[in-house]
From TrEMBL:
GO terms for cellular component: cytoplasm; nucleus. The keyword Transport does not apply. It comes from the Eukaryota. It is found in: Cytoplasm. The keyword Thylakoid does not apply. One of its GO terms (molecular function) is phosphopentomutase activity. This is Phosphoglucomutase. SUPFAM superfamilies: Phosphoglucomutase, C-terminal domain (SSF55957), Phosphoglucomutase, first 3 domains (SSF53738). Its cofactor is Mg(2+). Residues 43-182, 240-327, 339-462 form the Alpha-D-phosphohexomutase alpha/beta/alpha domain.
Amino acid sequence: MTSETLTRQWLEWDQDLETRAEILQLKDDDNDAELEKRLRNRIQFGTAGLRGKMQAGFAFMNSLTVIQTSQGLAEFLHDHDADRAATNGVVVGADARRNSEKYASLVVNALLAKGHKVWWLGGNVQTPLVSFATLQYGAAAGVMITASHNPAQDNGYKVYLQKGVQVNSPNDAKISQYIEHNLTPWEGAWEPLQTHIDGAEKKGFDNSSNQFQYRYLEKIDRSWRTQICNYAQSTVTGDLKPSPFVYTPLHGTGGLCLPKVVEEIGLGSHMISVDKQFKPDGNFPTVPFPNPEEDGALNLSMLCADEHGRDLIIANDPDADRFAVAQKIPGRKTWYTFTGNQIGVLLASHILENLPQPSKKKGYYMLNSTVSSSMLSKMCAEYGVSHRETLTGFKWMGNITNNLQGEGYEVPFAFEEALGYMFPDVCFDKDGITAAAVFLLAAAQWRKQRDVTPWDRLRELYQLYGHHETLNNYLRSPDPKTTAELFENIRAGKWAKGERFGRFRISRWRDMTLGYDSDTPDHKPELPVDKSSHMLTLWLNEDIKFTLRGSGTEPKVKFYIESWNHDQSKAIETVCDVLKAILSEWIKPFAPTMTYAKTMSTSSSEMLEL
């Protein structure tokens, strides 16, 4: 198919005036190279759904690609779960990003066209609320329009199936096939949302036979907050001694619900918000990257806290599924931003300390991803709680939790190092609002019982389990081809068990792409193999683990290094030396165009001065 044919096809299907104008301008300018870039390849639907830059073309996020994706999803549900979709419906929501509500309204059109009932939550909602609502309504699926923490020019399309668990393989591939067979916009695909609202009002929106249900946001939001508060308060007992804190939603939707949750758990008088970042604003005017992991993202929060004499900061990302914490260290004038691993073990320690006797005979499980701290497994062993490692992503943790519950286990907590924390009593996805509630109550209990801060509590845990120092960061890759070549070159080298890597010796080698593990009897990994993504994990000596993987949503190659030692300085020195070995042994020889990025995902600031 020529560029001219692709252009003609786009203009035949697209009715969005803005994106039509983009393609028409490129056509008038005879910019064939840009038309090829935009139209030749489709944006791919996977376990992360869709995520990409908002602009015209089949390769990007726009109204037409959202319609096509939604038609594929609607057909998939029609063929695989039609009765549930027609009676229990599909939940649809959107965050505060530019175009999010418009895209979500196009999702509604496709679902209604196939006879599915729709629970329309509208715009300015939080991602974990959509997961919760999908579970509560017993819905066949949930769709959230969000790009989470990505820059302002991006947007995305996230899909949950039953129980509010993210879509995973093989269903992601099946949905992708349905999309390919439903590219032509259906009749009514571009219908304004107001048409459905007007129709529902004429019929009476409280009538349960109505296909389009809206005005239920307040009700489900209240149920969600109640569930959050009940769970968070179940982890503490007695009087508490909360610390005053500063909160920022980073221009996202968290500010619409977290203050209510904080009020309901009795901490409302202790919160001050960052005014310049409190209202939802998809342009993110004060932060170029609205990700609390990024260096500088919490600068305004720190200024606000200093101005008001507060030493604790909590933050959500724009769709409120991530949670971050910073604290001014006792006796110092500097701020310390906790890593996702550190927040994870702090939350886990609090939950483990306060676990009741299990109601199910098989007992408890806790989970974390393979790139997250191994410290959780040691803590679980101390408390007699089973632990399981999963692949990265809450699509895995949610599905495994659902399976474990079906087998008779209870799963109170799971986490991933990228500031993601799941509380299955609330929902089966990462949830920055519940994480904030639990963390604030935990901090209040530590202060009341032992007069310690979160920083102090972390030091106590390191004394018990050893200093688990981490350095999680990424390299910017110029394109997918460079990423693929890097991993191909690594695999072609002599990096097997027993070989040297820098000053270390490889004690175990695992390739989750090819399905190889040097330490299992049949050399097959215990975790599911994913041939569609690159992921290598090495264990060095007896106290080091690191993983290198290609990001599924961003042009990055991520690495995760952990060393554990009762001597903190030795653990820090070790992770620094591992990073130097990665850069010198792999990146410089095989991918010199990749650039190193600084983030706050390291447990010691000294590690960044390399």
